[in-house]
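Two proteins, back to back. First:
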Amino acid sequence: MRTSFLLGLILSISFSVSARQKVYDFNIRCQQAYDAIMQLRLDAGTALLEEEKKANPDNLIPYFLDNYTDFFLLFFNEDPALYAQRKPLRAERLARMEEGPTNSPYYLYTQAAIRFQWGMIRVKFSERWDAVWDIRKAYLLLKDNQKKFPQFLPNNMLAGSMQTVFGTIPEGLRWISNTLGMKGSIREGMQSVQQVIDSNTEVARLFREEACYYYCYLKLFIENKPEDVWGFIQKYKLDTKNNYLFALMVANIAMNNQKASLGIKVLTERNDSVQYEEIPYVYYLLGQLKLCRQDDDANVYLLKFIDRFKGKFYLKEGLQRLSWYYYLHNNMEAANKYRNMILTRGNTETDADKQALKDAKSGKWPHPLLLKARLLSDGGYFQEALKLLQAKKAADFGSMEEKLEYAYRLGRIYDEMGQDDNAIIMYEVTVKTGSNRPEYFAARASLQMGYIYEKRNDKAKAQKCYQACLDMKGHDYKNSLDQRAKAGLQRLNGG
């Protein structure tokens, strides 16, 4: 009798422990941890999450936020050893999220977000098939959650971001959209993300900075509205001094939008205390931006990136920029040393890395004046670049490739300076001469003309230019230019 009583007591205690309800409690400590992680103060965020795990062992949110830490580390730094160590945590966290109450909006959302983040990580580690399935599953979970909890706006943040991108996947990566079986809408996707930013609900305010991060990139690279991006950054007073993630984002946008001086200012004025995670990508950005400005110390930052970065994305491009630095400084020994490293290091997942490898294999160096003009123009130093090119004419260049680049560079400079008619003249010369050549100049010129005509609301000419860009085959940067041209066509068609 006594034995059965003890057995019943043990069973009762065991059942009560196993039946304790797990919860998704995004409490103050978790919010502080999330804010720290989103600023890339990862150690501070992790310390807060460990406190929460001890104080509230049934709270699942700390384990969900652990995934953010892994995402930023693996996505930015691409360390294969850390990836091997952290990869098993994906399945463990997903299983843990399934222990929560199914009547919570966080039940499906946390699973979707974890899958979305691992999908992005897997792209960086060349696990493209697994990445596609993670992103597909994340999207389906979010759509399901939107039906169950339409007022839960974080759904809109992630689903809207994915929806915006889906419709612009270029021909070379069409297998992804075919596998996903989804068509996107730029307008609807952007509205969904904007809804999170504009809402004053408690949960929307919680995720607002993350939504701003997605929104800025989508606004620039999908909608092609750089001035709107800068206006947005000012309007919402994004903190680039104490939020390292925002500093990296704004510097990256500056690099892609001919604002080298602004990018350098943001990165050099940010709070660089030891509480922030070390991200070697910052040296890649600074090196690129300083090379555009023709700073003598640009090589210092590019060398730091190459020495400290353990991943493969952007490595060939970084080595190419370093070789260009030494080439322009007449140090051919160092220039050839770093160009040769392009052949064996990094990968060719990005168009820029593909181009760097192609250039290295060619054995040819760019014309120094054209290269200098390109870098100055890329940095937003248009008057200096124009002065260099106006001292020359097409006949001064020996090869057809150089003549073509001369016309294209002049077109881009006029374009950026607001001299649209002059830009169109040079772009048309570029397209006429180079549409059947392997260089990207003609395709990019056609894309840029599309932007000009779209801005003028001349939809017929804009559509013709975007389609011409898509129709050109076998040129450099094919995937990225096609994606931008497809986005242009979608905008014209009200997508």
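And the second protein:
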Amino acid sequence: MKTLSQLVFNNTYSELPTTFGTAVTPQPLSDPFLVSVNPQVAEMLELDPQETQTNFFVDVFTGNEELAGTAPLAMKYTGHQFGHYNPDLGDGRGLLLGEILTSTNAKWDIHLKGSGKTPYSRQGDGRAVLRSSIREYLGSAALNGLGIKTTHALALLGSTTLVSREKMERGATLIRVAESHLRFGHFEYFFYTHQHSELKLLADYLIKHHFPDLLTTESEQKDKQTASPNQYNNIYASMLTRIVELTAQLIAGWQSVGFAHGVMNTDNMSVLGLTFDYGPFGFLDDYNPSYICNHSDYSGRYAFNQQPSIALWNLSALGYALTPLINKEDVDAILNRYHLTLQRDYSARMRNKLGLIEKREEDTVLFSSLFELLQSQMVDYTLFFRTLSSISATDLSMSALPNSIERFEDLFSCIQPLETWLKAYAVRLNFEKDGDESRLEWMKQHNPKYILRNYLAQQAIDKAEDGDFTMIDELVQVLSSPFNEHPEFNQFADKPPYWGKKLEISCSS
């Protein structure tokens, strides 16, 4: 474990030409204080947890002290927002402070969100507020706990600096940690500004630092002289293939746990397949495939059931931006692989949730009939699968089925359709080789007891604005291991109150 001053910085991105970004000094917040620290992220960085409790830690990450080795940089990118290209984007309220290299040679970007104005702030103040910072802090812990790739948040800090949004709010900073902050929009920036040399340089940078195995593969192909002219022998085509695969895997994860991002603009899409830029996100309560978590999304472009197609739209925008490096025919062929990867990963995740190891043709019907049931009955998505994870094959026998159905009574308004589905599920389980004990344990490891429901995040925000941060720490503890029972926090697994299902979340931060 290291102190802040002992962290090893290797700031490779800031060594790129100035067109990649602008050096900016963070603007300090007044009377800063620590709100919460995620110990798992501190361990990942090899940072001594005690160091996070020091005044120096607070001052460094609120712009009041400079940490040796950092090279604060506002990254320049562009992107498509709600389907329309916007050339005036970039780090408008965040800075890439530096890149930490751990003892295992893992590279982690340290990004300060809410650090003040940059050349890309447009009309904004460059600040973040406590409310939205809490949501991202908890959201990243939740997705990571669910085993879905995401950016992380080391700590959350508050201040007495006032920031104007719909009302006056407290300014805050979030210490975001990620393998990379490269977005689809970085490539779009260089393409649309006709900086094709820089586009190639960015692609080379991504491959060198994050897909180095592609360099090895290309070298081996050349040595063996096996590369055919039309079979993706272009390393940039291999790079795009990797991004398509990672993105498809990410979306499969989101859909399986009922996560809605809310603002899937191309500038919010990570080339490493990370859940990136938490804004008006939300988890499904009642199963509603057309759920819109973003109050500002009037057309439903980013509704829950639109996420798979929007991800492909975004990948198509990225593929177009890479046409100076990859011929269009290869781009189209690579994009055609998206649905295959998505379907494969999503199907595997859903089979895990239902405890089905064997693949059978009738599974598609079993899945679709379940989704129809959940939607028609407005059943809580998470609670249904968690409850199902305690139902054995014996519980589904004719004699025991009535008692088993009682466990679902709080979730269904009409039991008969559930009974029909459970009987079909019981028949399907007969083809499984594993016994109940191992199957149910497997299901509990794929069906979380806890998710970050909007009303829980709002309660934590309300308490924090009154100076009580305990619920934030409690939620981080639970969300970091959401498949465990945590009986002392059972209240976080309850059905949401009626008002909790009606919260409106906007892009305002």
